[in-house]
Amino acid sequence: MKRKALGAVIAQAAQAGIGLLLQILVARLLGIEEYGRFAILYGVVIVATAVVTGLVGDSLVVLERSQRAIRAGLELMLLITSVLLAVGSFLIAWLTGFSDVLESALFALALAAFAVEEIVRRMLIAHLSFVRTALTDLAGFVVALAVILTVHVTGTLTLAAFLGGIAAGQVAAAFFGWRLMPRSERHLVGLRGADLAAVWRYGMWRGLQQVLRPSLFTVLRLLVLAGAGLTAVGLLEAARTYTSPLILVISGLSSFLFVRFADQHKAGAGGSVREADRVVLFLLLGTVLMSVAAVVLIPWVSPLLFDVQVDPLAVIAWLAYGMSVAIVTPYGALGAVGGRQIAVFVIRLSDTILAIAAAVVMIALGAEASTLPFALAVASMLGGLGLRALVVSRGRPERPAP
Q1: Computed from CA positions of residues 312, 318, 320, 326, in that sequence, does the dihedral angle turn out positive or negative?
Q2: What is the pLDDT of residues 157-174, one digit of tens each?
Q3: Residue 17 burial (CB < 10 Å; 0-12/13-18/19+)?
Q4: Domain spans of the chain, in order of start
Q5: pLDDT tens digits for 271-324?
Q6: pTM here?
Q7: Sequence-distant (≥ 6) Cβ neighbours of residue 280 within 8 angstroms
C-alpha cells in the first residue's frame, strides 16, 4: 500500500510540476500581467477538466466498465462533454473580447485535449499504474516545451503560442498514454446502446463536486481582477503556484485513496474511517513541515521562479488552504465511493459558497488580495469536518450507483 501511495504522489507530482513549469515560463517570458491573463484561461481549462474527471474519470473507476453498454456510455459522455466545453469556452473568450479569434481557438483546442488526456490518465490510475501515468505527463510536456521554445527562438512568443504548445503536448500525451494502457483497455466500442444514464447518475454528482475547487479559484481570480487588476491576479496566482507542491501531495494521495476505497466497496468491504483519519493526520503533519520550509525559502526561491518576490502573507494564506484540503479529501473520497456522492457534493457546495461569500465581504471591506485565501481555508475546514461527520454517521447511506 505504501509503495502504491508513493507512486500516486509521484504521478501527481509529475502533473503538477509540469503545470508549475509552464506557469513559470509564462511569468518569466511574457511578464506578470500576461501571466495573470494566462492564469484565468488556464483556470477555466482546469475547471473543464474537472468536469470531465468527475463525469467520466470517477465513473470508470466505480462502474463496471467491462460491460459494453457502460463502456460505450463512458465514451459518449467524454465526446459530448469535451466538445460542448471546448465550443462554449471558445465563444465566451472570443465574444467577451478577452482573447482574439486565434487565441480563443487554441484555448478551446487545449481544453479539449486536456479533457481527453485526463481520461487516459484516469484509466492508468484505475490500474494503479502511477509510473506510466507520470511518463504520460512527461511525454506531453516535452512536446509542449519543444513547440514553445521553437516559437520563442524563431519568432515572437505570445500567449497564443503557449496555448498551442500546450494543446500539442496534451494530444501527444493522450496518444502515448493510450499505448501504455493494458491491451484489454485499449479498445473502443461502438456508441450504439450506450448506457449514458448510468454514467450520468453517478458521474453528475462527482463532476459537480470536482468542479467546485477550480471554480472557486477562478471566481477568486475574477474578483481580484475586478478589484485590483491583472497584476494583483498574477501576484496572488504566483503565491498559489509557489505552494502547489503541497497540494500535489494531497491530490496524489486522494487519487490513490479513491481507487482503493472503490476497490474495497466492489469487494463488499466498506472503506475504513480509521484509515481516513490516519491519512488526515499524516497529511497535516506533512503540511506543517512543508509550510515551514516554503516560508523560509521565499526570499531565494520565488525571485528565481517568477522574477518577483511573492507576498509572504499570501503564501501563508495558501498554505493554510492546503491544510484544509488535507482534511477534506480523504473523507470526501470515502463518502463518494460508498454511494453518498450527493451528500458529499452538498457539503462541498456549501463550503464553496461560504468561501465565495467571505471573499466578497473581505474585498468590500478593503482587505488585501493576499489575505483572501484565509477565507477559503476556513470554509474548507468546516466542510472537512462536515464530511467526517457524514462518513461516521450510522444513517442509512444513499443507494450506490449500479
Answers
A1: negative
A2: 888 888 999 999 999 999
A3: middle
A4: 1-208, 211-391
A5: 567 777 877 887 788 778 888 888 888 888 877 776 677 888 999 999 899 888
A6: 0.69
A7: 326, 327, 330, 331
